[in-house]
Amino acid sequence: MKCTNTDYHVVIVGAGVAGLTAALVLAKHGLQVAIIESKNTQTAKMGECIQASILNTLDKLGLRKQFEHDNHFQLQGYKVHWDVHGLYERNLLATPSGTGWLLNREKFDGMLVKAARLAGVDIYCQSKLTALDEVKNSELGYQNSWKLDIVSSEKKWRLEVPFIVDATGRARNITRQLDTVTQKSDNLVACFCRIEHSQSSTLTNQQAVIQSSEQGWWYLAPYSAQHASLCYFTDPDLTLPKSAEQIFNMAMQNKELKHHLTGCAVPFEHNFKVIPAYSSCLESCVENNWLAVGDAACSYDPLSSYGITSAMGSAFYAAKAIVKTFNDQPEFMQTYQSLMKSNFKHYLTERNAEYQKVTQFNSLFWQRRQ
Fold first, then answer.
1. CA–CA dist 73, 170 (Å, integer)
2. Do residues 337 and 285 make contact, with C-beta atoms less than 8 angstroms apart?
3. CATH for 74-102+187-276 (1.50.10.10, 3.30.450.40, 3.20.20.70, 3.30.9.100)
4. pLDDT at position 217
5. Residue 118: predicted pLDDT
6. Fold match between 10-48+105-185+278-355 and 74-102+187-276?
7. Residue 330 burial (10 A CB sphere; 0-12, 13-18, 19+)
8. 128: how many CB neighbours lie within 10 A of its CB?
9. I want to staple 58 with a disulfide (CB 3.0 to 4.6 A). Which of 64, 145, 310, 333 is the partner?
C-alpha cells in the first residue's frame, strides 16, 4: 500500500485511550494518521484503577517519565466485601508488581493527546463521520480503500484512506456499519458521580472499596486528595438512581459504604452519568482493511480492572499489525485477532468465577450470573 503526500494511511475514529495509543504507535512508524473524534478530548470521564503492569506499555510508548511526573493518586490496595467470607483487604504493595494508581483521566488522556500530536497525528475534535463507503480498485492505487464523509462545526470534507480503525468504544460506530457480529455476555451498566471527601475521611488511606449488594455492586475510589468516584453497577432493567444525590443516598444506606462516605458530599450539578459496562467481543476484530481496538474490539467488566491496561495493550499490538500490513505482511492481522479472542475467553472464565462466589443474595442480578 502507498499513499500520496495529501492522504492519510490510517484514519482512526475515536480519541479515547485505545485510539490515541494506536495513533501514536503508527505515527512513530512513519505512517500518516488522522483521528476523528465527535466530542472534545477533554470531556470528563470516570477515574479508573490501574496496576503497575501498565508501566510496560508506557515504557514502549516512551511515556513512563511523563506518567510518573503527572503524579496520579497512588493506590495502595482494596477493601473488599464481596462474598460470604466477609471483609478483607488486598495490599498491592505485597504483590510482585507493587502499587497501582487511581487515574486522573483528564491528565492521562491529555498526555496521550500531546504525545500523538507531537508524533505528527492530526486530531479533529468535534467532528462526526457521516458516511463510510468501501471503494474497490481505488483510483488512488489501492486495491481497497474507504471514503469517509466528515462534518464539523466549521466545514464538511471527504477523505479516502486505505485503512480505518474503530476506536469508538462499546458504541462500535464503524463495525456496526459493517454489520460485524457482536457477542454480548451481559447488560451491566455503571451509574457514577464524583464526590468530595475531607481529610478525616477513610478515603485518604488511598484504598479503593468494592462492595456487593442486593441488586449489584459498588465501587468507591479516591482519585485525588479531595475527590473520589462513586459507582454503582447493576442491570438496566433493575432500579437505577437518577441523580448524583440519589446514588449518594443509596450508598449511605449501605453500612460499610456509609463508614467511608461520612463527611463526604456531592459537589456540583450535572455530576451524574449512566454508561454501558457490559462484557462483549466482536466475532471478528479485523478484516483486510480495518480493525477494532479497545472496547470496540472487546469490552470488559470494570470488576476485572482490564479497561485501560487492555485498551492500551490491544491498541499497541493492533498498530504493530497495521504496520506489518503496510509492509506486505497481512498475516499479522490474524495474529492480533487470535490474541484478542484468547484474552477475552480467559477473561470470561475469571469473571464468571468471581461473580459465582457471591451466594448471599437471592436476587435477579446475581441469579443471572450464577
1. 27
2. yes
3. 3.30.9.100
4. 97
5. 98
6. no
7. middle
8. 16
9. 64
For the chain, the structural domain boundaries read 10-48+105-185+278-355, 74-102+187-276
Give the pLDDT confidence score for residue 354 in this predicted structure: 93
C-alpha cell at 318: 493492533
Helices 17-28, 307-326: crossing angle, 10 deg rounding: 30
> What cell was used for 27?
505515527
Query: Which portions of the chain are predicted below pLDDT 70?
Result: 1-6, 41-47, 90-98, 138-142, 199-202, 204
Is there a contact between 278 and 185 (Cβ–Cβ < 8 Å)? yes
The cell numbers describing 173, all together, are: 460506530
Q: Of 317, 304, 308, nearest to 349 (Cα)?
A: 304
Buried b (16+ CB within 10 A) or exposed e, 222-231: bbeeebbbbb
Return d(Cα 305, Cα 357) in angstroms, integer. 18
Helix (H) / strand (E) containing 95 = none
What CATH topology corresponds to 10-48+105-185+278-355? FAD/NAD(P)-binding domain (3.50.50)
Among the listed residues 53, 49, 50, 43, the one whose alpha carbon sits nearest the alpha carbon of residue 16:
43
Q: How far is it, in rounded angstroms, from Cα 355 to Cα 52?
A: 25
How distant, in Å, are the alpha carbons of 35, 153, 282, 291, 344 from that of 285?
Answer: 19, 32, 6, 6, 12
Q: Annotate 253-268 with b (16+ C-beta within 10 A) or e (fewer).
A: ebebbeebbeebebee
- pLDDT at position 238: 97
Where does residue 110 rank: exposed (0-12), middle (13-18), buried (19+ CB within 10 A)? Answer: middle
Number of alpha helices (DSSP H) and beta strands (DSSP E) in the chain: 10, 22
Q: What is the pTM (predicted TM-score) of this model?
A: 0.92
